[in-house]
Specification:
mainly alpha, single chain, 4 helices
């Protein structure tokens, strides 16, 4: 069991989070996106975490909706750019893998002479 001091600290953190105006309710719920959320998306892309298609679409929709915030915060704008680049890179990697599988299953070309 954790010490009394640690339990008290954890309880204060939980109370502060519960009364916070920023709630974490997932993508597509109209909640503001911050850099931590974008970092989590990039981590999910990098490690290949399984993401349902409806959540993927919600992430893209929230990214598009957050472009207005990019004019106010340069660091947020860079985070959005990094996330979009990571998403595009993953899409290209998946397309190349699909092409390789398709070409591997096609019959080899015959030499005509």
């Amino acid at each position: 069991m954790p010490s009394r001091k640690k339990r008290k600290r954890d309880r204060r953190r939980a109370e502060a989070t519960a009364s916070s105006s920023r709630t974490h309710g997932g993508w597509g719920n109209g909640l503001p996106v911050d850099r931590g959320d974008l970092l989590l998306v990039r981590r999910a892309i990098r490690y290949g975490w399984p993401v349902p298609p409806e959540v993927r679409q919600a992430v893209v929709d929230d990214l598009c909706a957050s472009f207005d915030k990019c004019n106010e915060d340069d660091r947020f704008a860079m985070a959005v750019c990094r996330t979009v680049i990571a998403m595009e890179g993953e899409n290209q990697a998946l397309e190349h893998a699909e092409q390789d599988r398709t070409w591997a299953t096609d019959s080899p070309p015959t030499a005509s002479g």
